[in-house]
Amino acid sequence: MGYYNSYLYSAGGLYLFVLTVIALYYLLTGQGERIDFGWFLTNTSPYMWAATGVGLAVALSVVGAALGIFTTGVSVMGAGVRAPRIKTKNLVSIIFCEAVAIYGLIVAIVLSGMIDTYDLDKVAKNPLILDNNIYSAHLIFWSGVTVGFVNLACGICVGTVGSGAALADAAEASLFVRILIVEIFGSAIGLFGLIVGILQVSQVKMGNAAA
Amino acid sequence: MRSLKVLLLLGVAVTTLADKSAPVLVWESTESSAQALPAIPAMSNSQLQKHLNSLDSEALVMFIMNELNVEDFSGYPSAFPQLRREFESSLNAFTPSMSNPSQLSEQLDAYRRVTVDTQDVESLQLADGAQKTLFLVYVGDRAASERQAALQRTDELISTVLARVKSLTGKYSAMLTGKHTTMGGEAQRRKVRSLKAADEPAADASQFENLGCVFIYMSAPAVIRFSVAGDKGARSTWRVDLGNATFAADCNASDSSQTVTLSWNNISPEDHDQYKLTLDKIDLQLNFQAKMSGNDDPDKNKVSSWTLEPVTLTYSGTLDNHQQQETIDREEPLDFSNVYAPMEFSYHCTNRSWTLSRQNLTEEVAFSALELPGFQVQAFLSDDAPETFGRAWDCTTFFTIPIWSGLFLSLILLLVLVWSLMMLASVPTMDRFDDPRGQPLHVPNAE
């Protein structure tokens, strides 16, 4: 099992090497202008960006929540063996982690409701439609990424704190409520991500009507 | 000395190649005289001939197949049931290889030759006035892939003919042979599949023109497509092939622009159902626009890249729609702005077609697209540039947008996969209660 890490590092290194070689080839044969991120960003399909944003929003949030529940749950189970009274009270920590996943779910539903198709013949008449669709798709993508990563961090944070809360509660009952306050602050950062994510997509207009 | 040896070798080769050999089966009815066939394993042509000439039989039936191999007997054991019965119930002899056996028929002068019509065996008669009749049966086995079927047909033919001969006379002999073996056949007849004769390669219709400051190339003549008004507003496309173009270039228009004009004269495409078009002159004017490097010092201000803009297509001629003749003289602007190459590169694209920018086509026959196959062009060449195109700057990149999109998305998924594999790899085993000095686990071997 210890070898796997080295395999993964090698694979990552190979990937970076191939990327470097391709970039250097273009650069050194006088075709440096072919390395064009703007061309990539504007010519790729807006649907790719939008759908990826939706996916990342929920996926990363769920990963964060899962890691949090994993950390807390293990501690609650372990400490609950010696001090069974903590079991019911510490479920609150699990619920805080779950909330993080729900933030991601809400954002993903909101974002996917904004995705709409556009027709190329309407674009030919009004190029602004394509511009707005690209703009909206990028907003959706990065909104999803924002919410996803924020919830990932939040979930890990709440989980670690909840784990500490369970162990402290098992040692002394009065500690639980104090550590819960820390957990609430940790949960608030997930909410920040949700708010910013919704703010980002407030100007999204996809579809044929975008003009 | 050496040339003599070569000649000798060639002579031997020629004779061996000319020699056709095939296996020979000979059998006689037991009623004929008990002159045993020569019992030597390899009967020669002359020996067999002598023997057959001296036979006491009234009829000799000679079956000549196109091809006969020893492998036909060993490889298809169930192919000759009736022949096997006949053969083994008579005095018989088998020679695996005899040279030119089919020519025996000409050499057997004691016999009167009768060629048997395989479709009409019933009308066979012994040749009257002769003592011995030679029945020649040419078994027309085609060089079919179904060798088994051909052999079975041969077998049936043999039994049919022999049944008829037996009804004519009791004293007969028979012989089965072939003109040659499969290997010794004429070179013209090929049993193996050969490649279909390839078509003549099409004449090279490409055009390369060195105009001093501009190189231009097309791999095939240009094509213009007209959009023809049809029934109920539907438009169809009419393809007009242009021939070779004549080129004219203006290299000194200015420091930052050059012009090339392609002309086609007297194009008369094949008649459309409704229209007849005669184009006297078609001109395509390409204006190359250079983008300078922007250095304030005029000596150092060089061309860094160029584009093709504006481009105009002018055509004039007559259009006849069977009711009236209309003189047309039109000028269409085309959008060639994607044609771009940096300095010292040549723009290249395969089968690129440029359609008209405006969409509403009201004329009956309106120009809709120009196609320049295999178009390659390089402008703003310096005087000491080599005579060939610079490196090609293709109209599509090597890594296209779909490739990059795929790589981007698979990177995201691979990162997820890698993270999960790392997590799996970090699961530790329980070692709280391990004791290095403890007894290893003993599992009794229960029978």
From TrEMBL, chain A:
InterPro entries: ATPase_proteolipid_c-like_dom, ATPase_proteolipid_csu, F/V-ATP_Csub_sf
TM annotation in the entry: 7-27, 47-70, 91-115, 135-168, 175-199
Topology versus the membrane: Multi-pass membrane protein
Gene3D superfamilies assigned to the protein according to its UniProt record, in alphabetical order: lithium bound rotor ring of v- atpase
Record's subcellular location: Membrane
Domain of life: Eukaryota
Keywords tagged on the record: Hydrogen ion transport, Ion transport, Membrane, Transmembrane, Transmembrane helix, Transport
Gene Ontology MF terms: proton-transporting ATPase activity, rotational mechanism
Limits of the V-ATPase proteolipid subunit C-like domain: 53-111, 142-199
Short name of any one Pfam family annotated for the protein: ATP-synt_C
GO CC entries: proton-transporting V-type ATPase, V0 domain
Family affiliation: Belongs to the V-ATPase proteolipid subunit family.
Subunit record text: V-ATPase is a heteromultimeric enzyme made up of two complexes: the ATP-hydrolytic V1 complex and the proton translocation V0 complex. The V1 complex consists of three catalytic AB heterodimers that form a heterohexamer, three peripheral stalks each consisting of EG heterodimers, one central rotor including subunits D and F, and the regulatory subunits C and H. The proton translocation complex V0 consists of the proton transport subunit a, a ring of proteolipid subunits c9c'', rotary subunit d, subunits e and f, and the accessory subunits.
Free-text function comment from the UniProt entry: Proton-conducting pore forming of the V0 complex of vacuolar(H+)-ATPase (V-ATPase), a multisubunit enzyme composed of a peripheral complex (V1) that hydrolyzes ATP and a membrane integral complex (V0) that translocates protons. V-ATPase is responsible for acidifying and maintaining the pH of intracellular compartments and in some cell types, is targeted to the plasma membrane, where it is responsible for acidifying the extracellular environment.
Name this protein carries in UniProt: V-type proton ATPase 16 kDa proteolipid subunit c
Organism ancestry: Eukaryota, Metazoa, Ecdysozoa, Arthropoda, Crustacea
Automatic annotation (TrEMBL), chain B:
First and last residue of the signal peptide: 1-18
GO cellular component, one term: proton-transporting V-type ATPase complex
Membrane topology reported for the UniProt record: Single-pass membrane protein
Residue ranges constituting the V-type proton ATPase subunit S1/VOA1 transmembrane domain according to the UniProt record: 397-435
Top-level lineage group: Eukaryota
Biological process according to GO: regulation of cellular pH
Subcellular localization: Membrane
Transmembrane region(s): 403-427
GO function terms (MF aspect): ATPase activator activity
Residue ranges constituting the V-type proton ATPase subunit S1 luminal domain according to the UniProt record: 271-380
The keyword Transmembrane belongs to this UniProt entry's keyword annotation: yes
Presence of keyword Transmembrane: yes
Coarse class of the protein's main subcellular location: membrane
InterPro entries, alphabetized: Ac45_acc_su (IPR008388), VAS1/VOA1_TM (IPR046756), VAS1_LD (IPR046755)
Family membership: Belongs to the vacuolar ATPase subunit S1 family.
Protein name: V-type proton ATPase subunit S1
Record keywords, A-Z: Membrane, Signal, Transmembrane, Transmembrane helix
